[in-house]
Amino acid sequence: MGATDKAKNKLDDLTGQAKEKLGKATGDADTENEGKADQAKSNIKDAGEKIKDAFDK
């Protein structure tokens, strides 16, 4: 996995966590759900990169 891709995925995950916490704090379910979705996308991208790396070896 490239360092750039790994950093982007981590940034997306952290952004999602922040949105989720903000949504919980403000009672905004849409923002909370958007944050959870961002985290899920980040995890899927990360898993895809790991699969690519496994096949490259």
TrEMBL record:
Pfam families: CsbD (PF05532). Residues 1-23, 33-57 have a biased composition (Basic and acidic residues). Residues 5-56 form the CsbD-like domain. InterPro entries: CsbD, YjbJ_sf. Transmembrane segments: none annotated. Residues 1-57 are annotated as: Disordered. Belongs to the UPF0337 (CsbD) family. This is CsbD family protein.
